[in-house]
């Protein structure tokens, strides 16, 4: 009969843990090998000390961030570890305390993830939307920089989606659609052809020569669950700030909704209904006729002149399609 062939797989110690579905082998969902099968780790008690062990074990530098709730997508195998408690000095994640192999009260919506400092030039993520949707951010040191929407096109999106394992891009939106990033604007402009497997393979150039924000990004709505409802924020002198709800009415809201391409005004809300802003109060006593092309063209008390505070931020709900 036919000969029986045995294949011997030799695993090094670094093959007992891996990071999956991130933008590199140094970022992703944590998976461990046990009894010949890869499985995930529950995010209960998952912290930077645990992540430090994983990053060191993989030769990926230091832990930059820990992520739960299956940030990198759900695993499909068993959940091998729960309640992981590393001191941080262990040589391998398997040496850390846990509930025991396969013992957990968890499911695949709570898989643990890690981002290590790694050796890669860029580490990507999408923020502000469901998985595979959101504002594009790039890790710079230990902070996340927002990619400038003035420079970002369909070809760049093709590469981002491919690198993140997210298929083909459906639509490219301005960063304002998913809210404002906490970090700076990324200092590189991508020139991808669309065929690259990762953005670090794309040609790029410095984009410090211009202000990133387009005119249509001079106003946006925050913390409303979509880009067509939320707290009103306006950009002035390079800083985002809020609008006071004194005299804030449907004519003012109509201008804002039209400016954002969000249809008609449905409701106006005051008293910081969508939560308080953190920047300056830029506008007060706003009085639009309703025909202005932008909120900045409406009369007001003057930039930064107000008798208001962040408990009285104006809000809007527009009829537009929420993301």
TrEMBL record:
InterPro entries: SRCR (IPR001190), SRCR-like_dom_sf (IPR036772)
Any one annotated GO CC term: membrane
Organism domain of life: Eukaryota
Zinc found in the keyword field: no
Keywords (A to Z) from UniProt: Disulfide bond, Glycoprotein, Repeat, Signal
Domain SRCR: 17-117, 124-217, 219-319
Disulfide bonds: 42-106, 55-116, 86-96, 148-212, 192-202, 244-308, 257-318, 288-298
Name of this chain's protein: SRCR domain-containing protein
Origin species: Electrophorus electricus
């Amino acid at each position: 009969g036919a000969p029986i062939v045995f294949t011997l797989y030799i695993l090094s110690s670094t093959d007992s843990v891996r990071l999956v579905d991130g933008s590199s082998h140094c970022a992703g969902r944590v998976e461990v090998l046990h009894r010949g099968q890869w499985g995930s780790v529950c995010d209960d008690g998952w912290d930077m000390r645990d992540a430090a062990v994983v990053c060191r074990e993989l030769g990926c530098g230091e832990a930059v961030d820990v992520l739960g709730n299956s940030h990198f997508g759900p695993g499909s195998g068993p959940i091998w570890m729960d309640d992981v408690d590393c001191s941080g000095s262990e040589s391998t994640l398997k040496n850390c305390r846990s509930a025991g192999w396969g013992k957990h009260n968890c499911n695949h919506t709570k898989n643990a993830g890690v981002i290590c400092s790694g050796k890669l030039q860029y580490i990507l993520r999408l923020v502000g939307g469901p998985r595979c949707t959101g504002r594009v951010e790039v890790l710079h040191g230990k902070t996340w920089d927002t990619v400038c929407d003035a420079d970002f096109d369909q070809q760049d999106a093709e590469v981002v989606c491919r690198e993140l394992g997210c298929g083909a891009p459906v639509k490219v939106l301005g960063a304002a659609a998913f809210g404002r990033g906490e970090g700076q604007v990324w200092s590189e402009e991508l020139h991808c052809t669309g065929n690259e497997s990762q953005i670090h393979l794309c040609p790029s150039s410095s984009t410090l020569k211009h202000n990133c924000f387009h005119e249509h990004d001079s106003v946006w709505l925050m913390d409303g669950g979509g880009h067509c409802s939320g707290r009103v924020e306006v950009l002035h002198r390079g800083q985002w700030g809020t609008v006071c709800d004194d005299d804030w009415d449907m004519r003012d809201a109509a201008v804002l909704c039209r400016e954002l391409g969000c249809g008609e005004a449905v409701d106006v809300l005051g008293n910081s209904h969508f939560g308080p802003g953190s920047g300056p109060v830029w506008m007060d006593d706003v009085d639009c006729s309703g025909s202005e092309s932008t909120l900045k063209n409406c009369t007001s008390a003057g930039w930064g002149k107000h008798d208001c505070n962040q408990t009285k931020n104006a809000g809007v709900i527009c009829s537009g399609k929420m993301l």
